[in-house]
């Protein structure tokens, strides 16, 4: 009962606490400040190449890279390659995120299921990603199925591990407080378990999506004729470093865009948080 009294006192203190004072905003609080550093790096890179400090043949300046991107966009190839790669990542991410969520929740809620399944899954997680490539080619050929399967391997394990860790990390005392208040099973899940799991789950989704973008490069090395990974291989074979750097730049932009989309979609479900890193 001492713990319950403490929780009630804390809740009353939160109710009685006056509204937070608005923190004075500084220029560093503006979201656009995040683009300052890459702009400085790009300008410095361009100046070093122009001054001859860095050779421009193997390290093309940003102006040449942007010209290559513009050339790809004008020909229509850029959107085609982006769309093909994006489809592969999103399909592999969707399938493996669902599988990772279900298995992570199952092993987290049921200790017996964890004892049966988790050792095997952890062993599979330790296998290097490139080791799956020959097997997937034998099973599925060099077409889309093998590429999506490889991306799915990269996405599955971060999502599974994140969900499993979030579920087993729920404070048992919070659950006991919910039972003291006679919450039904559905209310217990909705008001206590889900809010406790969601922050870790969102982080697991973002981590899985990031690895999906990493694995799609290896997947598109397997005989792809379209996609951003194909641009990398084509640039390497034809000795075009500007095309390689352009593909890397596009990977960074599109990958960041998808990560930001996950943040925007999940933000309404995390508004209740009052964390140190949150808005003040």
Question: Quick recap of the structure?
Answer:
By secondary structure, the protein is mainly α. The protein contains eleven helices and no strands.
Question: Keywords, please?
Answer:
280 residues; 11 helices; 74% helix
What do these coordinates show?
α4 runs antiparallel to α5, α4 (77-109) packs parallel to α7 (144-168) and α4 (77-109) crosses α9. This protein has 11 helices and no strands. The chain has helices spanning 2-16, 36-50, 62-75, 77-109, 111-125, 132-140, 144-168, 172-180, 185-220, 228-237, 241-266.
- Portion in strands: under 5%
Number of DSSP strand runs: 0
H/E series, N to C?
HHHHHHHHHHH
Mean pLDDT: 82
Secondary structural class: mainly alpha
Uncertain residue segments = 1-10, 15-21
> End-to-end distance, in Å?
33 Å
Show the helix and strand layout.
Layout: H1 2-16, H2 36-50, H3 62-75, H4 77-109, H5 111-125, H6 132-140, H7 144-168, H8 172-180, H9 185-220, H10 228-237, H11 241-266
Helix pairs in contact: 3-11, 4-5, 4-7, 4-9, 4-10, 6-7, 7-9, 9-11, 10-11
């Amino acid at each position: 009962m001492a713990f319950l009294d403490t929780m009630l006192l804390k809740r009353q203190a939160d109710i009685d606490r006056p509204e937070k004072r608005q923190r004075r905003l500084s220029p560093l609080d503006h979201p656009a400040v995040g683009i300052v550093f890459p702009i400085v790096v790009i300008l410095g890179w361009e100046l070093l190449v122009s001054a001859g400090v860095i050779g421009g043949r193997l390290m093309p300046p940003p102006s040449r890279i942007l010209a290559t991107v513009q050339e790809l966009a004008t020909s229509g190839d850029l959107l085609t390659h982006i769309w093909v790669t994006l489809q592969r990542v999103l399909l592999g991410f969707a399938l493996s995120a669902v599988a990772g969520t279900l298995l992570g929740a199952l092993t987290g809620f049921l200790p017996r299921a964890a004892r049966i399944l988790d050792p095997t899954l952890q062993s599979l997680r330790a296998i290097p990603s490139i080791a799956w490539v020959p097997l997937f080619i034998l099973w599925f050929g060099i077409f889309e199925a093998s590429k999506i399967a490889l991306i799915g391997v990269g996405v599955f394990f971060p999502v599974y591990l994140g969900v499993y860790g979030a579920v087993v990390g729920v404070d048992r005392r919070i659950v006991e407080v919910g039972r003291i208040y006679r919450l039904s099973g559905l209310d217990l899940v909705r008001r206590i378990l889900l809010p406790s799991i969601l922050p870790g789950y969102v982080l697991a989704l973002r981590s899985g999506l990031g690895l999906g973008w990493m694995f799609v490069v290896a997947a598109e090395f397997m005989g792809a004729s379209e996609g951003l990974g194909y641009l990398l291989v084509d640039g390497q074979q034809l000795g075009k470093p500007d095309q390689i750097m352009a593909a890397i730049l596009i990977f960074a932009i599109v990958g960041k865009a998808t990560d930001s989309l996950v943040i925007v979609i999940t933000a309404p479900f995390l508004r209740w948080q009052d964390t140190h890193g949150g808005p003040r």
